[in-house]
Amino acid sequence: MQTVNVDLGDRSYPIFIGAKLFEDPSLLLPFIGKGRVVIVTNEIVAPLYLDRVQDQLGKQFGSVIILPDGEETKSLDTIAHIYDHLLEGKYDRKTTLVALGGGVVGDITGFAAATYQRGINFLQIPTTLLAQVDSSVGGKTGVNHALGKNMIGAFYQPQCVIADTEVLQSLPEREIKAGLAEVLKYGLINNEEFFDWLAANSESILNLEGESISNAVKICCMAKAELVAQDEKEVGVRALLNLGHTFGHAIETATGYGTWLHGETVAMGMVMAADLSRRLGWLDSQAAARIREVIEKNFGMPVEPPADITIEQYLDLMSSDKKAELGKIRFILLKAIGEAVIEGDVESEILKSTLTAGSQLCL
Asked: Does domain 173-360 have CATH number 1.20.1090.10?
């Protein structure tokens, strides 16, 4: 097992990374306090791992909330359902919520914890690759709105994160690839050496080979922990973690939540960001083409956005994105592989060229 610490003073917490961590109660029990524990999970994860977590809690186990699977579950209606459960069960401020699942479960549980009785403890047990390397770390919680993704939420840190890499073996191939989009993101924003390593070891990573996948998860968690420690509430450098997300969130919203996996739209969005960076004269053509090739060929992810999204839809959704400031769309763009920047001034015609490039992105 390896441990990465998120340094936030008295709200610091550990991320435990390794295989078979579900079998070690000493990781979980110190972080749940003396109150009852409610596990929040979904219908896919519950049959696989709920019993293991419940057994570790012993007499402190209170109840479980099993949600439907899918991005469409990430809504205020689901939050209300969790509140109903907690209130009907007379759960107090000593209660701990345990998020057992992927990014949707983690985001929902964290937001419920942040707002129930003005804040109760929660911890993350992420069961997808995307959640282990990104969404479970850093305290971003929330739900979607019909007009924008993640527009309702709070920054609220967990007590700990337990990333058991062995559970990734149960994921379908599509989920693994979606998670790897977020892994590649870390290489693109500030670690060219990591991006090169991912490209060179794509086969072993896709096969979830022990040392390769544990190394990837650790490097991502270390990178995110460092950025979160510098900028917890994303007023500066933490925004670099949104590479590909401004485009990706627009695609998710326009096509309907659940049509594409979040990581798939991030993959498309990173290629669009690389293409826009190239058109601005920042990223050379060879680097842009390599980014597309690694994402598409090495890791088998989609890179072409849906053809039926109009320029008007893109501009409307991106201008409403939570990363927009003072009416300007903020993009995370690339000067080079491993060097990302935040940019709020992009010429309209150049942006439209990227939005209509389709199959010719980065080519």
From this structure: yes
